[in-house]
Description:
By secondary structure, the protein is an alpha/beta fold. The chain has a single domain, classed as Aldolase class I (TIM Barrel, Alpha-Beta Barrel), CATH 3.20.20.70. It has helices spanning 10-17, 21-35, 79-91, 110-123, 138-147, 160-163, 172-183, 201-212, 242-255, 272-280, 300-310, 351-365, and strands at 40-50, 96-101, 128-132, 151-153, 188-190, 193-195, 220-225, 260-263, 283-288, 313-314. Strands 1, 2, 3, 4, 5, 6, 7, 8, 9 and 10 form a ten-stranded parallel beta sheet that branches. The longest helix has 15 residues, at 21-35. The chain starts with 9 loop residues before the first helix and ends with a helix. The mean pLDDT is 95. S-adenosylmethionine (SAM) is lined by residues 60-61, 63, 100, 102-103, 132, 134, 154-155, 157, 194, 224, 226-227, 229, 265, 293. 6-(5-methyl-2-OXO-imidazolidin-4-yl)-hexanoic acid (DTB) binds at residues 46, 62, 98, 100, 132, 153, 155, 192, 222, 224, 227, 264-265, 292-295.
Amino acid sequence: MSETRHNWTKEEILAIYNKPLMELLYDAATTHRKYHDPNTVQVSTLLSIKTGGCPEDCGYCPQAARYHTDIEGNDLMSVQQVKAQALRAKSSGSSRVCMGAAWRNVKDGPEFDQVLEMVRTINKLDMEVCCTLGMITENQAKRLAEAGLYAYNHNLDTSEDYYKDVISTRAFEDRLETIDNVRKTNVTVCSGGIIGMGEKVEDRAGMLVALASLNPQPESVPINALVAVEGTPMEDIEPIPIWEMIRMVATTRIVMPKTQVRLSAGRTEMSREGQAMCFFAGANSIFAGDKLLTTPNPDVNEDMEMFKLLGLNPQKAFVKAPQPETVEASESVLQPLGEKPKWTRPGHKIERNENAKATSKLVSKD
Ligand code: SAM
Ligand code: DTB
Ligand code: SF4
């Protein structure tokens, strides 16, 4: 099948997504086998290093301060705590740790310095280190790269059109700018999105157009199914049928043949048979561990049983790109610039986000 293309149109992607399922699966599995070992799946462990209290209004997110009622917020974890968790993850078969912080964007200062130390520490454990910290500047991306960061996760989340119905506190272009800043370094790009937020199939195709047109395409693309959390504006949305996930994974595999497609949030709602079809359709990465950032995920032992049943093997670290070198803080040539970047603050207000904000205030007064 074809080499990587960056000029997919929405219509072409929709035609793939809507193919008869058996044809779609055959095409996706054929592409998958061309670029990947179909029996190898990357296992990545998520670690929420700073939880809750986020100023943004992402309509799906339990960590947005304005809605959340029921998650336990935490200040930034210590480097020692992170090291202990990374060692646990490694011993249970993970080759990657992804550290998430509920920040709008990174600010230079002691907290970012601490994150840089976490990156150095995990890289020295010979694990791939990924961070998802919100928007970052070019200088911050360079400092993360110098510390030994392997990947940066920054999701487009949905199509440019639907984005305005999900988040009003930043714009789609801000997301692209951060991805661009990461691309100026050797850090690999992880960017994907969420399905099942009330978007149309056209929006799923629109998101894939945006991701596939990045050149190079992201090295990882997480496909999340919405985890509808009580208190968020999306709390009442029903889980999407597994068929939607299978189609989305297969289409992602076809339009981004070389990327690692991650079957991300939402696996607690999926049967083993459903997940097996996603692996057949080209998913070759999962998040493991009984928690994602704040919501449940299948138990790691159950996942390892599933791997055994399906004959899947966890991917070793650094098989897709070499391990970065770590530069110690004392030897760094990069200075924090303390920039005040001009990320947008669009005025658009989303009614359902405003409603959820009002309701959660009522709840917390009781
Ligand atoms: N604050 C940073 C940011 O937004 O880039 C990093 C953390 S944020 C929680 C990372 C990603 O998690 C989001 O972009 C979104 O795709 C995903 N996510 C958050 N809440 C989710 C939910 N309820 N269901 C599915 N995915 C979710
Ligand atoms: C991604 O695409 N999904 C992960 C990771 N990147 C950071 C996060 C999923 C979060 C699900 C909701 C929660 O647990 O808070
Ligand atoms: Fe904040 Fe990220 Fe959640 Fe949006 S997705 S509210 S930026 S933690």
